[in-house]
């Protein structure tokens, strides 16, 4: 009986320590940061399916606002020298490359342009939260707090910037 009580007491102490806020603080500090949950991942889709998905998203963004989206496509930019703003985008073409859709992104952190950015036309993967903003009386979509990935060995300078703000 005494042994059972002692084991029960030890079990209760271990249980209390495992849920102790002070103890769990150290356990959380040692845990690496969780990767973001991707709500829509079109990075591995065929060009036709990815194009259609972006077209649908641009047609009705409301279900996706605030959600995390990952996409792969070609990097492009628009340098608005009049307002001293550079817009960055991930562009996706359909299977015949006759039509394109793209989403602007804002890379998280400090990344001076053009030094830290890939060359226009480079294959990139962007992951960010879809938000809407207004500029000049018009509304635009963009991915904010974005992660930007590309293979520097694949860069090409033969493609001209294609993003338009019209």
SSE blueprint:
Blueprint: H1 2-19, H2 21-30, E1 40-41, H3 47-59, E2 68-80, E3 85-93, E4 100-107, E5 123-135, E6 138-150
Explain how this protein is built.
The chain is α/β, with parallel strands linked by helices and 166 residues long. It folds into 2 domains: 1-31; 40-154, Beta Barrel (OB fold (Dihydrolipoamide Acetyltransferase, E2P)), CATH 2.40.50. Helices cover 25% and strands 35% of the residues. It is built from 3 helices and 6 strands; from the N terminus they run H-H-E-H-E-E-E-E-E. A 5-stranded mixed barrel has the order 2-3-4-6-5. Strand 1 (40-41), helix 3 and strand 2 form a beta-alpha-beta unit. Mean pLDDT is 79; it is low at 3-28 and 157-166.
């Amino acid at each position: 009986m005494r042994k059972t009580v002692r084991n029960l007491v030890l079990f209760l102490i271990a249980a209390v320590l495992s849920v102790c806020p002070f103890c769990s603080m150290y356990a959380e500090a040692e845990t690496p940061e969780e990767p973001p949950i991707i709500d829509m991942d079109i990075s591995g889709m065929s060009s036709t399916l990815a194009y259609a998905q972006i077209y649908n998203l641009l047609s009705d963004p409301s279900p996706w606002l605030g959600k995390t989206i990952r996409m792969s496509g070609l990097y492009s930019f628009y340098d608005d020298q009049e307002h001293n703003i550079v817009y960055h985008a991930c562009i996706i073409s359909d299977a015949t490359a006759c039509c394109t859709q793209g989403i602007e992104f804002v890379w998280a952190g400090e990344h001076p342009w053009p030094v830290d950015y890939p060359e226009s036309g480079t294959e990139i993967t962007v992951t960010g939260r879809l938000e809407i903003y207004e500029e000049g009386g018009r509304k635009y979509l963009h991915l904010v707090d974005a992660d930007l990935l590309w293979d520097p060995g694949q860069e090409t300078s033969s493609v001209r910037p294609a993003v338009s703000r019209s």
